[in-house]
């Protein structure tokens, strides 16, 4: 099993979002397509969150987003550049490469707030769309005793990607954290099958890692060695979390 070092300095993180002309190719839209059907609707007006006005996102740790947390289209548009900058900074220590093809993106209320805002900004679906966005992305917010990740199998060449995915069926059931002798297995989301009947894996997967209180205490210790891995027969790789990443993810626990 190969072990990869996962320091954020090892490779600059890829931009989460590209210019508007190619946004459909971004990880953000890949996640959206995996979580729900993209279906633009008519523009409606929805609630402005006063505490977030003028680009000032001040969100305490929380486990669920409400409609009142979401800025109106106009307010978000005015501060979008600043939110995208902050999101890129936040994601830097929440992105972990495991092996040559798989990247884990660990989610929390902040990353899901950004996801919802971006989808609302792009699709302009208003209140009706907002209800669906919250239903799709609230389950990816960790609930205090867990870590939640989107992991993506990223291969640019479509023919090669199809061949690799055809051999990775069930990979969503093989993710794990290793802390000392303790192994925390990832549980895939059950909203839909992520491996087809033919055994082909989806390129976007969603997993939850539930920790015991004792495991959380060890995870939170400065410089604790934490390993993230996949144990699929055709893709067996591990990555050692850098200290900045460990500290960032430790902040997701209550």
Task: Tag the structure with descriptive keywords.
254 residues, alpha+beta, nine-stranded mixed beta sheet, globular
Model description:
The chain is of the alpha+beta class and 254 residues long. It has one domain (15-250). The chain has helices at 27-35, 73-92, 109-123, 126-137, 158-166, 213-220, 243-250; strands at 2-6, 95-98, 102-107, 146-153, 175-179, 182-188, 204-210, 227-232, 235-241. β2 (95-98) and β3 (102-107) form a beta hairpin. 33% of the residues are buried.
Outline:
With 254 residues, the protein is α+β, with helices and mostly antiparallel strands.
- Total of helices: 7
Question: What is the element string, with H for helices and E for strands?
Answer: EHHEEHHEHEEEHEEH
Provide the spatial order of strands within the biggest beta sheet.
1-9-8-5-6-7-4-3-2
Structural classification: alpha+beta
**Span from first to last CA?**
32 Å
Q: In percent, how much strand structure appears in the residues?
A: 15-25%
Report Rg.
Answer: 18 Å
What are the low-pLDDT stretches, counting only 5+ consecutive residues below 50?
5-25, 37-60
In total, the number of strands is 9
User: Biggest sheet, in brief?
Assistant: 9 strands, mixed
* Residues in helix, %: 25-40%
Number of domains: 1
Shape: globular
Mean pLDDT: 82
């Amino acid at each position: 099993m190969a072990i990869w070092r996962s320091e954020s300095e090892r490779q600059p993180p890829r931009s989460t979002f590209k210019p508007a002309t190619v946004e459909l190719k971004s990880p953000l839209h890949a996640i959206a397509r995996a979580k729900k059907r993209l279906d633009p609707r008519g523009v409606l007006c929805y609630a402005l969150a006063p505490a977030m006005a003028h680009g000032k996102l001040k969100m305490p740790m929380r486990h669920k987003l409400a409609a009142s947390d979401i800025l109106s289209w106009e307010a978000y548009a005015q501060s979008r550049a600043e939110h995208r900058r902050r999101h890129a900074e936040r994601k830097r220590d929440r992105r972990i490469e495991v092996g040559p093809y798989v990247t884990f993106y660990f989610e929390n209320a902040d990353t899901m707030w950004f996801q919802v805002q971006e989808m609302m900004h792009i699709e302009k679906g208003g209140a009706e769309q907002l209800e669906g966005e919250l239903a799709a992305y609230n389950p990816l917010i960790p609930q205090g005793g867990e870590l939640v990740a989107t992991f993506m199998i990223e291969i640019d060449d479509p023919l090669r990607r199809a061949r690799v995915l055809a051999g990775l069926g069930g990979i969503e059931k093989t993710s794990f954290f290793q802390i000392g002798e303790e192994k925390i297995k990832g549980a895939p989301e059950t909203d839909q099958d992520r491996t087809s009947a033919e055994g082909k894996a989806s390129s976007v997967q969603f997993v939850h890692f539930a920790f015991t209180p004792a495991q959380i205490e060890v995870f939170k210790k400065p410089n604790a060695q934490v390993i993230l891995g996949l144990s699929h027969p055709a893709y067996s790789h591990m990555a050692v979390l850098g200290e900045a990443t460990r500290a960032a993810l430790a902040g997701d626990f209550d």
